[in-house]
Design brief:
By secondary structure, the chain is mainly β. Helix content is 0%, strand content 55%. The chain has one domain: Immunoglobulin-like (Sandwich), CATH 2.60.40.10. The protein has a four-stranded antiparallel beta sheet, with no helix packed on it. The relative contact order is 0.30. It comes from Marinobacterium aestuarii. This is Sulphur oxidation protein SoxZ domain-containing protein. InterPro entries: Ig-like_fold, Ig_E-set, SoxZ_dom.
């Protein structure tokens, strides 16, 4: 995972580059049951959830997401996710 942040006028812009295989689907609904993809993504800032997403097999491999929220530097973002095969992980990124 790669995370880039910038701050301007107390607005934090976050760019997430998720390195995940996100199995691309061939269009066949039956294949979706076996697809490997990030199911849920959550981002917390100072303990508060600032972004969340429910993803599906329709996402491309290694997706890029961008969002904004109001805040200041000097704290960490905690990004956590789980995938369709039951694996989960988290990542911390310090906002300067």
């Amino acid at each position: 995972m790669r995370v880039e942040t910038s701050i301007k006028d107390d607005i934090i812009t976050v760019r997430l580059f998720l390195e995940h295989g996100m199995a691309a689907q061939s269009g066949c609904i039956a294949d979706a049951a076996d697809a490997l993809f990030i199911r849920e993504l959550s981002v917390r800032y100072r303990g508060e959830k600032v972004f969340g997403a429910a993803l599906s097999p329709a996402m491309s491999a290694d997706p890029f997401l961008r969002f904004r929220f109001r805040g200041t530097g000097g704290a960490s973002l905690v990004i956590s996710w789980n995938d369709s095969q039951g694996a989960d992980d988290s990542y911390s990124h310090e906002i300067a």
